[in-house]
């Protein structure tokens, strides 16, 4: 990661677009992460992601340090999702 590009809302904006698309297809979404990646975990907590499991391997994905986390979030109700998306856009600096 390029330090000068951190904290400008890029990851937040990209994650919101990704989740909007996923939640248009299904009522929940999953992701796996190395527990050392606290920035990603903190970011995803904003959308309600919680830990479901931890393991050395998920399918073919292994992790530096030997363990990974499986995280899940449920699609918010439509009015909550719209309010949340608008609030995040207001918090994100212009790109």
Describe this structure in words.
The protein has 95 residues and is α+β, with helices and mostly antiparallel strands. 40% of the residues lie in helices and 24% in strands. It is built from 3 helices and 5 strands; from the N terminus they run H-E-H-E-E-E-E-H. The strands form 2 sheets. It has a 3-stranded antiparallel sheet with strand order 1-5-2. Strands 3-4 form a two-stranded antiparallel sheet. A hairpin with a 2-residue loop joins strand 3 and strand 4. Helix 1 runs antiparallel to helix 3. The longest helix is centred in the N-terminal third of the chain and has 16 residues. The chain is flat and about 40 Å long. The two termini are 17 Å apart.
Mean of residue pLDDT values: 84
Number of helices: 3
* Helix percentage range: 40-55%
Quantity of strands, as a count: 5
- Tertiary shape: flat
Low-confidence blocks of residues: none
Largest sheet, spatial ordering of strands: 1-5-2
What is the C-alpha radius of gyration, as a whole number of Å? Answer: 14 Å
Distance between the termini: 17 Å
Major sheet: 3 strands, antiparallel
SSE succession: HEHEEEEH
Strand content: 15-25%
Structural class estimated from helices and strands: alpha+beta
What's a quick, concise take on this entry?
The protein is an alpha+beta fold and 95 residues long. Helix content is 40%, strand content 24%.
Which features does this protein show?
single chain; alpha+beta; three-stranded antiparallel sheet; two-stranded antiparallel ribbon; 24% strand; flat
């Amino acid at each position: 990661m390029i330090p000068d590009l951190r904290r400008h809302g890029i990851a937040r904006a990209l994650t919101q677009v990704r989740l909007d698309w996923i939640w248009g297809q299904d009522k929940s979404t999953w992701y796996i992460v190395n527990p050392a990646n606290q920035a990603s975990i903190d970011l995803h907590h904003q959308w309600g992601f919680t830990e479901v499991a931890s393991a050395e391997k998920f399918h073919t994905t292994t992790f530096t340090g030997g363990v990974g986390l499986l995280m899940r979030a449920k699609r918010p109700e439509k009015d909550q999702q719209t309010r949340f998306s608008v609030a995040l856009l207001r918090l994100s600096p212009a790109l």
